[in-house]
């Protein structure tokens, strides 16, 4: 039985073998490569190689000898909530706010379906922006990560070109990221740029900070300035710019200078454990991003975002629990 697939914009610029691996889920890779070699798979009625790059409106024709037109399994993203707290959206990306306690992606808990990756896909399906029934090879994806108990800005790509562009921007450090956090103690100096080195321990989901470079660690740069000092609680509210973006960077870096984030039981030393107040999780909130794309070509797919900045609609959730509230005083 012959079948035809018409490539849509969401799958533009994907290699045909990678597209078919996801689209023809009942076929092995060996099956697919054999079908390409034997001309059982063609594009626009022409023979192609396995590394052919698909373009919009290309027509893939193949002989479905496995008859895969059986009833499809309901995707797991339907088990997640379809709502996003939107900050900005266009044809390429979504910028939204992650709430407290929701993982960014699938965790080690197999029954944990309500994470931000699934919420993104469910939202796009519900708003008729992603047609999962056509089993498209590209799945819309989040491109930045926040810890489960860190709140704030996340970005989701709607197509492969946008995802590649966002990954490039983040890798080149051209997405400026700003956080608010509450730390123990009165920090001095009130404004500084910190540089150190970070080593990951994936087996324990921990990182450690070193002053000197080794073969195993990576440089981290964290810039902060004081917003308010709470004398009674001995807490300082900081505005932090994440120059590099490593795992747990802000939490571990500030803890290494003896100013751990309030509520962070993973990196705070024992001497701080009795002064966490009623906070059960780290008080860390990603509140602003700025796209710095001045050095990108005019035909760069996201060039139109150059110098655009996006902020969460309201201050971090923990601001309302601070006394006095520095934002009410202004």
Automatic annotation (TrEMBL):
Alphabetized InterPro entries for the sequence: PsdUridine_synth_cat_dom_sf, PsdUridine_synth_RluA-like_CS, PsdUridine_synth_RluC/D, PsdUridine_synth_RsuA/RluA, RluA_PseudoU_synthase, S4_RNA-bd, S4_RNA-bd_sf
Gene3D superfamilies: Pseudouridine synthase, RNA-binding S4 domain
Catalyzed reactions per annotation: a uridine in RNA = a pseudouridine in RNA
Molecular functions (GO terms): RNA binding; rRNA pseudouridine synthase activity
Highest taxon in the source lineage: Bacteria
Keyword Isomerase part of the UniProt annotation: yes
Signal peptide feature range: none
Keywords of this entry: Isomerase, RNA-binding
GO BP annotations listed: enzyme-directed rRNA pseudouridine synthesis
Entry EC number(s): 5.4.99.-
TM ranges: none
Active site feature: 147
PROSITE patterns with a match to the protein in the record: PSI_RLU, S4
Role according to the record: Responsible for synthesis of pseudouridine from uracil.
Name listed for the protein in its UniProt record: Pseudouridine synthase
Organism of provenance: Mycoplasmoides gallisepticum WI01_2001.043-13-2P
